[in-house]
Amino acid sequence: MNEKKTGIVYCKKHNRKENFERVKFDFLGFSFQPRFTSSKRSTRMFLGYDCAISRKSENKITEIFRNSKFHRWTGVDISRIAEIFNPKIRGWINYYGKCRLHELMRIFKVFHLRLLKWACNRYKRHKRGIRRAKRWLRNLFRLNPGLFVHWQYGFQYA
User: Fold this and answer.
1) pLDDT tens-digit series, residues 71-124
2) At a CB cut-off of 8 Å and minimum separation 6, what does 62 contact?
3) Of 46, 58, 103, 112, which has the fewest Cβ atoms less than 10 A away?
4) Among 121, 104, 106, 23, which residue's Cα sits nearest to residue 69?
5) Crossing angle, helix 130-143 and helix 105-122, to 10 degrees?
């Protein structure tokens, strides 16, 4: 066993309140740690031990957006961008979205910012301000909500 990767972690929950040095660990792209969760029986929140996408995985995904430099693809239509990224986005949603789908919002905010940059670079009418590009992207979402996979799950940048 690798000593750097192996360790004992205290699973802190609402009924386990001791303080220990390690209460979090990452495994297969997920981060397991104490998180506030809503009760299934009532509307109350309690501290549970749950998993969500890890920061390291988030950074890798956002790095894919940055390295693709699709905001510079001015000769490409938005449907082509959707065609290229939809299989990847679908895979991330299917893998990381099994628990705490809303944690993927940070990733899709980065993607939407890249889309706004693309719109500003592609269309001269958006050169002056990003507000027009935001309005255009919002209208595109309303007219074609199935263009990008994550839009179908409710991830929309306003």
Assistant:
1) 888 888 889 999 999 999 999 999 888 888 788 888 899 999 899 888 888 888
2) 107, 110
3) 46
4) 121
5) 110
pLDDT of residue 91: 92
Structure tokens at 96: 């990381």
- Angle, vertex CA 98, rays to CA 38 and CA 44, nearest 5: 0
**Residue that is written with structure tokens 């890249």 in the block:** 114
Token couple for 53? 């996408």
**In the block, which residue shows the tokens 């390295």?**
67
C-alpha atoms less than 13 angstroms from C-alpha of 90 in its C-beta half-sphere: 10
Q: Give the angle 84-135-144 at the CA atoms, nearest 5°.
A: 45
Strand partners, 50: 33
CA separation, residue 90 to residues 5, 20, 59, 86, 156 (Å): 30, 37, 18, 6, 15
Q: C-alpha angle 63/30/151, rounded to 5°?
A: 60
Whether 147 and 78 have beta carbons less than 8 Å apart is answered as yes
